[in-house]
Amino acid sequence: MDDPLDGTEGSDSEERDRYLAAMQDLTAAMAASGTTFQERVEPVLAVGREHLGFPNGHITVVSGDEHKVVASSGLASTIAAGVERPLSKTYCKHTLNDSGIHIITNASESMAADPAYKEAGLEAYVGTTLRANGSEYGTLCFVNDDEAISEFSDWQQTLLKHLTQWVEAEIEREIAVDSQEESQRLLEATFNSPETFIGILEADGTLIRANETALGFIEGDAEGISGNAIWETPWWNHDAATAHRCRDAVERASEGEMVRFEAEHVSADGQRISTSVVARPVTVDGSVQKIIVEGTDITDLKRREEQMEFFNSILRHDILNGMTVIEARAETLADALDGTQATYAETILDWSQDIVDLTQKVRSVLSTMSDDGLTEAETIALGPVVEGATKKAASMDEDCTLRTDIHGDIEVVADDLLDDVVGNILTNAVEHGGPGTTIEVTTERVGPMVHLHIADDGPGIPPAERDAIFEKGERGTESTGTGFGLYFVSVMVDSYGGNIWVEESDLGGSEFVVALPVK
Length: 519
Known about the structure:
By secondary structure, the chain is of the alpha+beta class. It folds into 4 domains: about 10-180, Beta-Lactamase (2-Layer Sandwich); about 195-300, Beta-Lactamase, CATH 3.30.450.20; about 300-370; about 380-515, Histidine kinase-like ATPase, C-terminal domain (Heat Shock Protein 90, 2-Layer Sandwich). About 45% of the residues lie in helices and about 25% in strands. The chain has helices spanning about 15-30, 35-50, 90-95, 105-110, 115-120, 155-190, 210-220, 220-225, 240-255, 300-335, 340-370, 380-395, 420-435, 485-495; strands spanning about 55-65, 65-75, 85, 100-105, 125-130, 135-145, 195-200, 205-210, 260-265, 270-285, 285-295, 380, 400-405, 410-415, 440-445, 450-455, 500-505, 510-515. The radius of gyration is 40 Å and the shape is elongated. The chain starts with 12 loop residues before the first helix and ends with a strand. Mean pLDDT is about 85; it is low at about 475-485. It catalyses: ATP + protein L-histidine = ADP + protein N-phospho-L-histidine. This is histidine kinase. GO terms for molecular function: ATP binding; protein histidine kinase activity. InterPro entries: 2C_sensor_his_kinase (IPR050980), GAF (IPR003018), GAF-like_dom_sf (IPR029016), HATPase_C_sf (IPR036890), HATPase_dom (IPR003594), His_kinase_dom (IPR005467), PAS (IPR000014), PAS-like_dom_sf (IPR035965).
């Protein structure tokens, strides 16, 4: 379409004058200042209302079948910002289906049966699709609620195109501002994480900014703290060695190295905490421009490590020393007694040796957990493990029946505690199954896993309790144990990369299924 100002043959001088006046008004409206989107677009909508001859102009945003007016000028009682209705009941649905300008001059004649006309009753309408950042956003519309229009001239269509372009630019600007503000809020939320102490430094170690968490710890003032060398601030200067450790880390970070270390800090009220600290360089074109220092409170972790060491010492001194005495006495009795009594003494000796062995293994696990995690798994033949565990379980009740069907070549990924894992399940089955319990142990290959099935004909475990029995301190309703055994089993199986659960057994009781990975 030719611009009405281009002076082409056949152009009407009156239309050119009207178009020129409209563009002058539009230029003035676009230059008007406003702090909100509504304030900026209302003057432009008013220009459109005046020169296009409609009592209302408005902007909508459309998502699916949701249609919402986000800005409006004129006819506030009919179409106001914030009004929402289904897109299917609006004139805009026709605009979005068209590629250009959609014009309705007399709706009572052309749209009498349309749901949009029945809903709003607007007599005349002109609208265009608004796009922002390459995607459909909504519509720019001008409407007359009670009068038809005879025509919509070329110069008015050109004006509407200019209005559309300006509104689209304003929408993109608003989206960009919203996106920037959201990003800033996310950055601030991350920076002010209540779990982490964060400081931003110049490359020479001068503090630029500290987050609220760090400032709150020392009850410091941002202006009073900033500008000082980080190691001279209250987080670090309470102890010369701590300050030196901080300075050394920052100097190494200024040379491009990421440095990790642990430190102790004293709060404003005298509380001492331990932190894991990272000094991280921020480089631009290969040069360190800033340094970020982050500290994470590990006081509870340190306390747990101390507790684990305490329990480890109990295992090492109290339990192991006690079991050594029991083992020695049982060995003496086994040598001195005959018959049934000698058998009982040998059973005590066997169990004592097993308990000593298990205690030493648990000590190893505790030590490993306090360092780099659980012991490293390896490939282990499953058959001998099951054979040893069944012999141990059988010694608990001479009337119980244990049947195994394990292929000798099955190997799984585990460690040397697997015999205690399997043994714990089997001894539980004997203990809770009652006199003369029957237990069957079988295996099957399921994808990359071996499923070890341990089924019994005991009273079973109610479905509601099957998950809970693997939790720390949990035990069955009839159990007199500590609840440690199955929790230990679950932790170890999980460390192997496996899983464990309970089903109903074909024998009538419970069936434990231990899924173990195959190398």
